[in-house]
Amino acid sequence: MDLRIGVIGTGAIGRDHIQRINGITSGAKVSAISDINSEAGKLLASEIGATFFAEGEDLIASDIVDAVLVTSWDPTHEKYVLEAIKHNKYVFCEKPLAVEIDGCRRIVDAEIKAGKKLVQVGFMRRYDRGYEELKAMVDSKELGEVLMLHCAHRNPSVDESYDTPMAVENTAVHEIDVLRWLLQEDYVSAEVKLPKQTSYTHENLHDPQFIILETESGIQIDIEVFVNCQFGYDIKCAVVCEKGEVALSDPSYTTLKTKGKDSTKVSSDWKDRFVTAYDREFQLWVDSVRAENITGPSAWDGYVASVTTTACSKARDTGTKVEITLEACPDFYKK
Amino acid sequence: MDLRIGVIGTGAIGRDHIQRINGITSGAKVSAISDINSEAGKLLASEIGATFFAEGEDLIASDIVDAVLVTSWDPTHEKYVLEAIKHNKYVFCEKPLAVEIDGCRRIVDAEIKAGKKLVQVGFMRRYDRGYEELKAMVDSKELGEVLMLHCAHRNPSVDESYDTPMAVENTAVHEIDVLRWLLQEDYVSAEVKLPKQTSYTHENLHDPQFIILETESGIQIDIEVFVNCQFGYDIKCAVVCEKGEVALSDPSYTTLKTKGKDSTKVSSDWKDRFVTAYDREFQLWVDSVRAENITGPSAWDGYVASVTTTACSKARDTGTKVEITLEACPDFYKK
Amino acid sequence: MDLRIGVIGTGAIGRDHIQRINGITSGAKVSAISDINSEAGKLLASEIGATFFAEGEDLIASDIVDAVLVTSWDPTHEKYVLEAIKHNKYVFCEKPLAVEIDGCRRIVDAEIKAGKKLVQVGFMRRYDRGYEELKAMVDSKELGEVLMLHCAHRNPSVDESYDTPMAVENTAVHEIDVLRWLLQEDYVSAEVKLPKQTSYTHENLHDPQFIILETESGIQIDIEVFVNCQFGYDIKCAVVCEKGEVALSDPSYTTLKTKGKDSTKVSSDWKDRFVTAYDREFQLWVDSVRAENITGPSAWDGYVASVTTTACSKARDTGTKVEITLEACPDFYKK
Amino acid sequence: MDLRIGVIGTGAIGRDHIQRINGITSGAKVSAISDINSEAGKLLASEIGATFFAEGEDLIASDIVDAVLVTSWDPTHEKYVLEAIKHNKYVFCEKPLAVEIDGCRRIVDAEIKAGKKLVQVGFMRRYDRGYEELKAMVDSKELGEVLMLHCAHRNPSVDESYDTPMAVENTAVHEIDVLRWLLQEDYVSAEVKLPKQTSYTHENLHDPQFIILETESGIQIDIEVFVNCQFGYDIKCAVVCEKGEVALSDPSYTTLKTKGKDSTKVSSDWKDRFVTAYDREFQLWVDSVRAENITGPSAWDGYVASVTTTACSKARDTGTKVEITLEACPDFYKK
User: Fold this and answer.
1) Residue C335 pLDDT > 80, yes or no?
2) What are the chain A neighbours of B266 within 8 Å (beta carbons)?
3) Fewer beta carbons below 10 Å: N end or C end of chain D?
4) In a shared domain, residues C219 and C328
């Protein structure tokens, strides 16, 4: 029997995931959808043979929904996740888990109180084959201890709605989660530098930005965030260890020699670069929900990401190095 | 409603596909299996919740089977495919379609007579992203006409059961199918050269071999087949065109600098290299069967592969260039 | 008539340059040498057919010496360079020009007073084909303005005599000169961070270090200095511009596939990596001296390097961001 | 005292070498030149401070000439080389040594009779760092025995004077020499195939061509010669061994990411690709002449190249596989 998933929020990312679940994922089907735009929601529901719910809460409560996918407007994430926990249903929430640290904390507390891990946050990079290879190398200690990480997160361009804080909150947040997972260490400080700007940016955005994080053991991480780089979607992560360096590469399937150049393609956008990671993320989430044992990014991971992005934002606004302090990870979230 | 697939033959490749269908493919489930080894077959059937049939013919006839997957012993492929056609059921047959040209022809004739395309042959390279990029480049004519192809098909090692003819029939047959698809041209001649042998080969195998094919328009293809290359599974395909060269690369996800070397991994085996192609092949087959419009490698493609491998074998045995003549492709198989 | 060069200081680097001048460089010969070790110096002189001088000052004054090469102990550089200026002779001085800012300044003042450019400092990276290609790309503005540079300077290992300050003074000084030449901008601030240390370092050396420089126009430069990286000699310089990134690569002449890896060699040391740059540096210096028009790194460049390394050292010692202020470049040194 | 070189023939390649000797090579100067065009020759002589000789024979005989460089019209090579041998002078002759096998043989016989190795042929690839690395790997036996070589020799374009035979005689001749040196084996057969032609060729040239050579031990070599490939000057040499593959790469000094591509430059022409090899070839020739012990490509190598190209031409004209038979290498030419 397929897992019946209810999807709240059917914008671009929601529709993408609906297609993924119905067309590529084994063992799951979208049984219900909800959207603030009733008309569009109903139309989509009829197209894919799902039931439409005007209210997300009703979808969550419905007995035709085994698990919930939250892809709605960011400020609504918290309430839907809390509602799912209340109904003891598994819930996959696209980042951010909540828009403020406190909201994330409320989810953590509710989940601990419910006594069962139900929440997974949509940090898909952990499912990318490149990051998995990096982690296997780090874990093997073949290169000794990790000392530094040099990272970049580059988008070809962003529109006017993307402002300075989003470089941290929407963009670097992916590095913030995946590098903490890679290193299995928390961050202790954050700094943000503002280099010379590209003329391709707009009034409300300082682009590029340069973030420096330090971990508990002293590993130093630098992350260039450059969201109007023009040339493509380019993700770098070089892990400098005592005996060598292992670095992410943008996989290429063909090489082309023409007009005096020997070239490979640069990914055009995040979908192109991470489509396989998204597919695996959902297949493994569905499998783990059916096995009643979810293992992906937890509510605690979502909370820590929120604490860290908040520190980065403060560092950027004050031009200072900001300490990051976290209470101890609750036993509930330790493997 | 999921497509219910009956699998005939549950050896290594059969079990691999069963896992794929049940664990990764959307919209399909294995409902029935058959194997000459009843005990093992029954055990597997109970494990995956499928019905066991002692006879493949009974599986094909059963109304709990919507479509058939043939992964049995090569000499039995023909009869099961013919039986599936008789029952008007879609059938996916791992290569070879039949062990002799005549057997392939009988399948072609039966399918034409049945009046519906039901047969797909397991040439999975057409679903590899690298070959797809090569084809897009060739089709675009951006580099002008194709003039030559330089290819290699290398396995780390083979056991004693792998003999000289298998270099063509089991190994180069993948190139024979995918390059014909890539170029949309048939072959007109074949030659096989026998270079200096590796000391890692065994008595019954001349390794490496070097195949030269010529197409209708004069494109020359060379294929090195080297199945004891020791270092990994390595597939090359460089398409030399009038204005440039586009070549397959072995995608790498990380690069490693240590001990004086900057390296990437070479694939270890065909599963490692083509796992994504297999996954896509099955998803698209399931989708196309459900849409009643299969588009993958046809019985005619299986027949042409057989004619071509037979010519290569003759060329190798006689040390001469052998002409390849084919009747015109029946309208039935033209798009 | 060949240029007759007198060499002061015949340690490892001195002997290397003597071989280069006598064996590879066109239009020059070593006519005289001087070294504090008279015995070794005399022996070498007789081997290469040169005249030995016990005192560097006498060598400089001799009429068998057209131009002087200073490769002696660092603290003696200043006096020999000043002496050469006094005798109106061209002088090539290995870095540093002088051990303190004041010494560099005295040389600058003496040269200006002498009224003729006579001094060249041994910053050979400007002669590396890779850096030349970077500069051509920057100068072309094809990628728009430069925004950031990400650099690394890695040595396989250093011995106990190499201490913390040397990471800046002996190692990063190469980047400090070549990046200023690349960007044609001076630095305005320096910071040094001290990441987690490698266990391969020793008591007197913090390794690695991470330097951040800012230029007049706001370009931000980060330089990882890691001198016990174990795996090879590895130089990185990625120039991030508004429309793309151009980066140095370690040229490789062959690729090797064996044992599951596809690899190229990493340079083993600076000689291996920059030998061609050294050869070109000397050929062009000899040519330019003969043409009476030297164009390489000037005394002013040596002075600016000294000001910058001093600022970096202060930044490291104080853990703060240190401003770098320079008087205006004298007209004498402007092209 | 510099080696005084007399240059016969001052066309493009002659002038290039004159610049190299006078501007880059240590220990040599052009003292004399000769050219059939007296006016241009005299002008050049006065520019570089050399003596002009109307007759090459007079230049060879002159006591201001220590060694001779023959870069004249191909059909005159033989007589000048023989003349140099007669005068017991070292002579460097650009390929071909002579236009016919017999001419090469006459030089071999004359040199043996003279009793001293005086002749070097201008096969510069042996001095390329890439080929040297290939040879070191082959010689080390680290990858076991060599089994096959896959090569390509591609030029961006050729003019109408370049006809079908030149693909072998002027182009593949470089591979013919360097691969024999690499493998230390002679060839036993040659075949030439004529694939589909590029529309960028002209009436008198079949382009591309595909040459297959076999060596004494059975190593099979394929060489694609494609002289209107449009995209650059591209040299490939992949050495397939029992345990791995080592292949030439076109060294790149920078990588560029822009407009959706990650690219390196392809060499534009043979000068760009092999300039360092030419420089080293001349430096080592000068050094070896001064040491009275030349070690580069010998007259015998020139003779064997001629025998092999003649066999290839016959193979191409007859469409058959042609055996190559050589008398034993005279002891005189064995190391």
Assistant:
1) no
2) none
3) C
4) yes
CA gap C235, B257 in Å, rounded: 12
Q: Do residues C316 and C185 share a domain?
A: yes
A276 touches chain D (CB under 8 A): no
Measured between CA atoms, the residue of chain C closest to residue D279 is C24
- If phi over 0 gives left and psi between -120 and 50 gives alpha, with beta otherwise, what is residue C329? beta
Domain CATH number, residue B234: 3.30.360.10
CA of B225, closest CA in chain C: separation in Å? 16
C217 touches chain A (CB under 8 A): yes
Question: What is the predicted pLDDT for the residue at B1?
Answer: 80
Inform me whether the pLDDT recorded for B335 exceeds 90: no
Task: Examine the domain organization and report whether D210 and D316 are in the same domain.
Answer: yes
| A136 and A107 within one domain | no
DSSP-assigned letter for residue A169? I
CA–centroid distance for A111 within its chain:
20
Identify whether C285 is part of a domain: no
Asked if C198 has any chain A CB less than 8 Å from its own CB, the reply is yes
Residues B138 and B241 in one domain: yes
Q: What is the pLDDT of residues D35-82, one digit of tens each?
A: 999 999 999 999 999 999 999 999 999 999 999 999 999 999 999 999
Q: Does one domain contain both D326 and D200?
A: yes
Q: Last residue of some domain: D64, D86, D121?
A: D121
Residue with tokens 């059963």: B62
Is residue D288 domain-resident? Answer: no
Residue found under tokens 């046809």: B298
Local structure of residue C49 (DSSP, 8 states): T
What A285-294 contacts at long range (C-beta under 8 Å, 24+ apart), as own/partner pairs, is A285/A92, A285/A120, A286/A3, A286/A21, A286/A25, A286/A26, A286/A27, A286/A28, A287/A27, A287/B23, A289/A3, A289/A66, A289/A67, A289/A90, A290/A3, A290/A27, A294/A90, A294/A117, A294/A118, A294/A120
Boundaries of domain holding C21: 3-121
- Provide the terminal-to-terminal Cα distance of chain B, rounded to the nearest Å: 29
Quick check: is A293 in a domain? no
Distance from CA of A255 to the nearest CA of D (A): 9
Among C248, C263, C264, C269, which would you mutate to test the B interface (most chain B Cβ atoms within 10 Å of its Cβ)?
C263
Question: Is pLDDT at D335 greater than 80 in this prediction?
Answer: no
The residue out of A92, A121, A150 marking a domain boundary is: A121
Residue D27's CATH number:
3.40.50.720
Does residue B40 sit within a domain? yes
Chain B residue numbers with beta carbons less than 8 Å from the beta carbon of C258 are 230-231
Structural domains counted in chain C = 2
Task: Using CB atoms within 10 Å of the CB of residue B248, give its burial: 0 to 12 exposed, 13 to 18 middle, 19+ buried.
Answer: buried
| Per-position pLDDT tens, chain A of length 335 | 899 999 999 999 999 999 999 999 999 999 999 999 999 999 999 999 999 999 999 999 999 999 999 999 999 999 999 999 999 999 999 999 999 999 999 999 999 999 999 999 999 999 999 999 999 999 999 999 999 999 999 999 999 999 999 999 999 999 999 999 999 999 999 999 999 999 999 999 999 999 999 999 999 999 999 999 999 999 999 999 999 999 999 999 999 999 999 999 999 999 999 999 999 999 999 999 999 999 999 999 999 999 999 999 999 999 999 999 999 999 999 86
Contact between residue C253 and residue D251 where contact means Cβ atoms under 8 Å apart: yes
Residues D106 and D203 in one domain: no
pLDDT for C1: 80
Each residue of C248-297: pLDDT tens digit? Answer: 999 999 999 999 999 999 999 999 999 999 999 999 999 999 999 999 99
C257/B230 touch (CB, cutoff 8 Å), yes or no:
no
Query: How far apart are alpha carbons B294 and B298 in whole angstroms?
Result: 9
For residues C27-34, average pLDDT: 98
Contact D62, D68 (CB under 8 A): no
**Chain D contact for B231, CB < 8 A?**
yes
